[in-house]
Amino acid sequence: MKLPLAMLPENEEARVVEVRGGRGLVRRLSELGFTPGAKVKILFSNSPGPAIVDVRGSRIALGRGLLMRIMVDSEADS
Predict the structure, then answer these.
(1) Percentage of residues in the chain with pLDDT exceeding 70?
(2) What distance in Å separates the CA atoms of residue 13 and residue 33, rounded to the nearest whole number?
(3) Cα–Cα distances in Å, from 7 out to 14, 20, 54, 61, 72?
(4) Does a structural domain hold residue 78?
(5) What is the DSSP letter of 8?
(6) CA gap 77, 12 in Å, rounded
(7) Are 10 and 77 in contact (CB under 8 A)?
(8) How far apart are the first and last CA of the chain?
(9) CB-count exposure of residue 8 (10 Å: 0-12, 13-18, 19+)
(10) Range of the domain at 30
């Protein structure tokens, strides 16, 4: 099921499907590891604030607005 990364429950793995945004935002998030097919997991979420995300072995803190632009598939590993 495709949903924004912000809606993924803590400690559940998913795969990045797409990043929605302008060229600069897509490039920056790609540089951080958020590319299609990458496994991601929310390690800590301070809803409605920022969250700590594990992506490609790195822990990255992202705000809720950016998390809403990263679309993931939570059933990709099923």
Answers:
(1) 96
(2) 15
(3) 11, 15, 15, 15, 9
(4) no
(5) S
(6) 11
(7) no
(8) 11
(9) buried
(10) 2-73
